[in-house]
Amino acid sequence: MVPVRDRAGTPYEVTLELQRDGRAFGVVGERCGYLLATLARRVADARVDGSPAARAWPDPADRFPEPPAATDATEDRRPVSREPELFAFRRRDRGETPGTGELRCTLRTTCTWLSGPDHRGGEWRLSRRAVVEAWGPDGQGVRAVLTSAELADLLTALVVEARLVGADYRDVVTSSPVRARHAPSGAIIDY
Predict the structure, then answer these.
(1) Chain centroid, CA 189 distance in Å
(2) Fewer CB under 10 Å: which end of the chain, C or N?
(3) How far apart are CA 46 and CA 159, in angstroms?
């Protein structure tokens, strides 16, 4: 977690410095703390019993906030994604070359056929997971598949680490179930 400071030197935002096996893996997400805090709140809200996500996804592990509405391909000529992004952080500065680093989180829905007794009939079981991928400048990547609880824990840890370097998002998390219950990990992502 790298603080972004104003002219007086006061931290007001953060940038993510990714590490893998103790080595620099990329710097992404210039001023991304507010977005992470907002997403942490949205994930916590989606996990609450009685929420719209809870009505649609009975298993708490499958409950994620709905990503922003995708536009129809005919409107702007971009295809609608089958794996919508919750966030995507890429290189830090415009002057950096593509491939300097990337961290993204998409939602993936899978279907599994559950056979009935004696293999007669059955039903489809849908599940959702967050897929978090980090790519370094050399093209090497790591991936983690997370339940909504695991994503909530990761986001909470990032918000806590941001607070520890001086960027506080109380305006986002005050009315949220997100709590400062995690100790800093020492690195943003160290798979």
Answers:
(1) 12
(2) C
(3) 18
